[in-house]
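Aim 2 progress update. The chain analyzed this quarter is reproduced below.
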Amino acid sequence: MEEILNRVIESGVERAAAIQLVALLPLAYGRVSLSGSGAVFCERYVALDAQGKPGQSGSLASLPFWLQALDFAKQDREPSFPIMSRSAEVRAANAALLDGKKLGDLVWSAPVFVRPIDFSANPGNLQPKARWWRQIWDAPAEHSVTHRESTIARGAMIVALLVGLFAIGALMYYVVALLR
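Predicted structure tokens:
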């Protein structure tokens, strides 16, 4: 998980937000994938403190990124096994199913996060840094043109290319005719 956390941070997401995303996305994907199984999950969480002892606890819905992570997982058209397979709940469900148990008969405990949750992270501030090549293209040009002017310029360029290709074709036809 540390490698994934570092990748998310390197992409420009602030550390507090990255910690929540790395913890919550697998949980959300796992719960969405198991939603029709009869499993009833605990809606609370526990976060360990720096010494590894239970610290914060509360409702998952109170976490800044939980509802967005859940919505994201629900709206994802393709089930993402690599993400949901990182969920402890999915691994526990898989083990229970292999043992012949029914998921609806099990008691699910609160998920435990290995890092404290920083409530200063805000999903509204989630703006990954643009890559340097995107910064070049996203920056307004010194002499910006309107969309209409840009479309006209593209059309003129296409016409010019077609005229040029026609001229080359006519020239080749003339050369072949001379060589006969």
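Residues 28 and 71 are 8 Å apart (CA to CA). The longest strand covers residues 54-59. These observations will guide the mutagenesis experiments scheduled for the next reporting period.
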